[in-house]
Design a protein that fits this description.
Blueprint lengths: L1 H20 L5 E8 L8 E10 L3 E7 L7 E9 L5 E5 L3 E3 L4 E4 L4 E6 L10 E8 L5 E7 L5
Parallel strand pairs: 1-10
Antiparallel strand pairs: 1-2, 2-7, 2-8, 3-6, 3-9, 4-5, 4-8, 9-10
């Protein structure tokens, strides 16, 4: 009887290990940062690098309301009149195995209706939502320049 239990436990452990080893790692997030915001500004932006294990899309972002009242995914692009303008986008494509950088002058996560300025040296949590992968929570560091 004892040998049957040991064998059954060994099988269950092996199955659990195999399941963990074959799990899709989803999306890796690196280098999350935001610039300090001027005292009277009510907006800020978050920049980071995203690498999806397989094709995916960034479809949502969220912070605690104590950081920003509204969070949107944005792109800086050329407008019809030839000037650069920020515009909200519904998603950002993440081709599998390719790093997509959200950086100044390109894609970024816009923080709107800041109740207070983002201050150099502070950190806050940002949750990212994806079309295929599980949500990822990251720590954003407020700093003058990219890490």
């Amino acid at each position: 009887m004892h040998r049957v239990r040991v064998t059954a436990v060994a099988v269950l452990v092996a199955l659990a290990a195999a399941a963990c080893g074959s799990a899709d790692p989803g999306v890796t997030v690196e280098g999350a940062w935001a610039r300090p915001s001027p005292a009277m500004a009510d907006a800020g932006a978050v920049y980071l690098d995203l690498t999806a294990a397989s094709d995916d899309e960034l479809i949502a972002a969220e912070v605690d309301p104590s950081i920003a009242g509204v969070v949107e995914i944005h792109e800086t692009a050329m407008s019809d009149d030839g000037t650069m303008a920020m515009q909200e986008v519904g998603s950002i494509d993440l081709p599998g195995g390719t790093t997509v950088s959200l950086e100044p002058g390109g894609y970024h996560i816009m923080l709107l209706h800041l109740p207070r300025p983002l201050e150099n040296g502070e950190t806050f949590s940002l949750t990212l939502g994806f079309a295929e992968s599980d949500s990822v929570q990251v720590t954003v560091e407020v700093r003058e320049d990219a890490p």
